[in-house]
Amino acid sequence: MCCPPILEGPLAEADARQLADLLKVLADSARLRLLSLIAARPGGEACACELIEPLGLSQPTVSHHLKVLTTAGLLHREQRGVWAYFRVEPEQLAGIREALTVTN
Amino acid sequence: MCCPPILEGPLAEADARQLADLLKVLADSARLRLLSLIAARPGGEACACELIEPLGLSQPTVSHHLKVLTTAGLLHREQRGVWAYFRVEPEQLAGIREALTVTN
Asked: 3-state DSSP call for residue A33?
C-alpha cells in the first residue's frame, strides 16, 4: 500500500518516486472525472460503455484512461461478457490521503 | 480552497481541471521530498540554502521547485535578508485530502 506520510520525516527517494507516480495517474482531469462518474453510478459501478458519452471523449481515449487507473490500483475491473465493469478501489485513494496527512 | 470531493457526485470539468493542476504540482518526487525536508526541520521551516545539499540537485532546480510549490499555495515563503525561508501550508494539503475522501 502506498505510501509513507510525506510530513513525518524526510522522504526516501524511492518512496517519493512511488507516490509521485501514483499522483501523476490522478493528476489528469479526465481521469478524475472518470473516478467521480463511476462512484456516482448506482452501486458505485459502471460499464465502460456508460462512460464515453458523459465524458465527451472517444472510446479509445476512455479505454486508455480506464486502463491507467486500473493498473495503478485506483479502479477494480471485472469482465462480464463483452463489457468490462469498473469500481473505485477506496484503499489506494485512502493510501494517498494518508501520505498527505498533516500531523502538526 | 481546493476542491470538491471527487467521489461525492460527478465532478464538473473546471473543478477536475483545478484539482488535476494541483496534483500535477505534487506529482514530482523532488517536490515531495522538498515538502518533507522542510516539514522535518526544527520549527517546520527551512532556508532555501539548507535544501540544496540533502536533495542533491542544483540551486536553480531547487529554486524552481520551491517557486512552483509556493505558487500552488503548498509552501509559504518569507524573505529575510538574502535568503528566503519556507514552511508547508497545511491548508492546501488538507484540501487535496478532502477532495480524495472516500465516503462509502
From this structure: helix
Give whole-number Cα distances, A7 to A35, A100, B93, in Å. 27, 7, 10
A20-41 residue pLDDT tens: 999 999 999 999 999 999 999 9
Question: Chain A to chain B, count of Cβ pairs less than 8 Å apart?
Answer: 112
What residue type is A52 in one-letter code?
I
Q: Report CA Rg, chain B.
A: 15
Residue with cell 484539482: B19
Contact assessment for residue B36 and residue A32, using Cβ atoms and an 8 Å cutoff: no
Distance from the A80 Cα atom to the nearest Cα atom in chain B, whole angstroms:
24
Does the N-terminal peptide bond of residue B3 adopt cis geometry, omega within 30 degrees of 0? yes
If residue B64 lies in a helix (H) or strand (E), which one and from where to where? helix B59-71
Can you tell me the ipTM of this complex? 0.92
Q: Which of A77, A88, A72, A78 is nearest to A40 (CA)?
A: A88
